[in-house]
Prior knowledge:
Blueprint: E1 2-4, E2 21-31, E3 35-46, E4 50-56, E5 61-64, E6 69-72, E7 75-76, H1 81-97, E8 108-114, E9 133-135, H2 136-140
Parallel strand pairs: 4-8, 8-9
Antiparallel strand pairs: 1-2, 2-3, 3-4, 5-6, 6-7
Amino acid sequence: MTYISILKPSLTPLNFCPVLRVFHSAWWQADKYYIQERESDFTIVHPEKGILLLEVKGGKISYDSINKSWYQNQDRMKRSPFDQAREIRYSFIKFLSRSSSNLSRACIGQCAAFPDVDAIENGLPSEAPRNILLLRPQLKDINLID
């Protein structure tokens, strides 16, 4: 299995914080049984704390606990945003493990962000713990450095 790093040529970090490097829409290709493209909406890199892969869903996001389905602007999503974030994380870890980069030993986490949502009604499924979910209130007061 060969993993090839392919980033968009215009990909440059958003340097709003001197310690963090934030990449928007970073994607890579993995050659397993067939070529698979993977993309992280935002990849946030801290040199000491690790890497956070952020899946962002805009608009009205809701969860129907009876049908176990996620909705974006009343359209049923094909997949849970948390499943997407988890799959992207595993793919990224596998990608890094195939490279000679020291990043393969980094702490790598995933998170979902719903910037247009103040609160999730009807509760959240077990796949969606609150500590990996950012809503509009948390994004307003985000503290980038402890």
